[in-house]
Design brief:
This protein is α/β, with parallel strands linked by helices. The protein has one domain: 3-Layer(aba) Sandwich (Rossmann fold), CATH 3.40.50.1820. It is built from eight helices and eight strands, in the order H-H-E-E-E-H-E-H-E-H-H-E-H-E-H-E. It has an eight-stranded mixed sheet, with helices on both faces. Helix 1 packs antiparallel against helix 3 and helix 4 crosses helix 5. The protein is globular, with a radius of gyration of 17 Å. The chain starts with 9 loop residues before the first helix and ends with a strand.
C-alpha cells in the first residue's frame, strides 16, 4: 500500500523514520554504539517542565549540513515501550540519523505507567511539543516545519498531538502549527484493551473512548506519513495504520503509507 504525497522533505522524513522502525527488531545498544558523535551538536537533559521526567535532548545538525540554518525541519520524536518503559538516551541513534540528514531533533522523556497514567503522558508530550515550537527558530529550524513522530506507543503520543487539539490547546499551542506527523507502527484504535501494560496505563476498563486517536481523525489533521510492518503481531497494522489512513484520506488529508 503506497500513495505519494509530493511535499518537500517527505523523502527525508521517510528515510529517517525507517531507522526508528528498525529499533523494533534490532538491539538498541548496538545501534547506539554505531552512532557517530561528530555529525551533530548535542544538548542533554533540557527541562521542558518541572517534573523529573520532563526532560529532553536536542540534536542539531552541524552548520555545514544542508539545509541552511533557519530552513531545517524540526522533528519531535516519541519512543515506544507500552507507556511503561523507555529512556531518551536509548534512542540517540534516531537523533543522529535525523540530524545527519539536516533535521533538528527533540527527543523527550515523558511520564510512564504505572506511576503516571493516561492522560499524563499525553500532557507531557504536549509540553514537549510546545517547547519545540517555542524554540525552533533558536535551534536553527523553520518554525513552520515542525513535525511530531513516534514509534509504537510513541506513535500514539504523536498522533494525539496531531489529531486531538485538546492537548496542545491546553498549553497554548495548536496542531495547526505542525507541518505533519509520522506514525511508526502506532496503536490508534485499541479498545477494548487487551495488553496488560496498556490496561494499567489507560485505567481499563474506565478508559474514555476519546482516548483513541482514530476518534479524532478529521480534515483538520496535518499531512501524514504512516509506516507499519504487515506481520506486526503486537499492533495490528490493518486495524490501526490501515483504518487511520483510510479515515484521514476520506477527510481529504494528504496521507502517505509504507509497509
Amino acid at each position: 500500500m503506497r500513495t505519494s504525497v509530493p511535499k518537500p522533505r517527505t523523502a527525508l522524513l521517510f528515510a529517517t523514520a525507517a531507522v526508528a522502525l528498525l529499533a523494533a527488531c534490532s538491539p538498541v545498544k548496538l545501534l547506539n554504539r554505531a552512532v557517530p558523535s561528530d555529525t551533530y551538536v548535542f544538548e542533554d537533559g533540557v527541562a521542558y517542565g518541572a517534573a523529573p521526567r520532563q526532560r529532553l535532548d536536542v540534536y542539531r545538525p552541524l552548520a555545514a549540513t544542508p539545509p541552511a540554518q533557519g530552513k531545517r525541519p524540526l522533528v519531535v520524536f516519541f519512543y515506544g515501550g507500552t507507556w511503561t518503559t523507555g529512556e531518551r538516551a536509548s534512542f540517540k541513534f534516531v537523533g543522529e540519523a535525523l540530524a545527519s540528514r539536516g533535521a533538528v531533533v527533540v527527543l523527550p522523556d515523558y511520564g510512564l505507567s504505572p506511576a503516571f497514567r493516561y492522560p499524563v503522558f499525553v500532557q507531557d508530550s504536549a509540553l514537549a511539543v510546545k517547547w519545540a515550537l517555542d524554540n525552533a527558530a533558536r535551534l536553527g529550524a523553520d518554525p513552520k516545519q515542525v513535525y511530531v513522530m513516534g514509534h509504537s506507543s510513541g506513535g500514539y503520543n504523536a498522533a494525539m498531538m496531531a489529531l486531538d487539539a485538546r492537548w496542545l490547546g491546553a498549553v497554548g499551542a495548536s496542531p495547526r502549527q505542525l507541518a505533519g506527523w509520522i506514525g511508526l507502527a502506532g496503536p490508534y484504535d485499541f479498545l477494548p484493551i487487551e495488553n496488560p501494560d496498556a490496561q494499567i496505563a489507560f485505567n481499563w476498563p474506565d478508559t474514555p473512548p476519546d482516548s483513541q486517536p482514530l476518534a479524532h481523525a478529521s480534515a483538520d489533521a496535518p499531512r501524514t506519513l504512516l509506516i507499519a510492518a504487515t506481520k506486526d503481531k503486537l499492533v495490528n497494522p490493518v486495524r490501526n495504520t490501515g483504518q487511520m489512513a483510510a479515515k484521514l484520506r476520506a477527510a481529504g488529508v494528504p496521507v502517505e503509507t509504507r509497509e
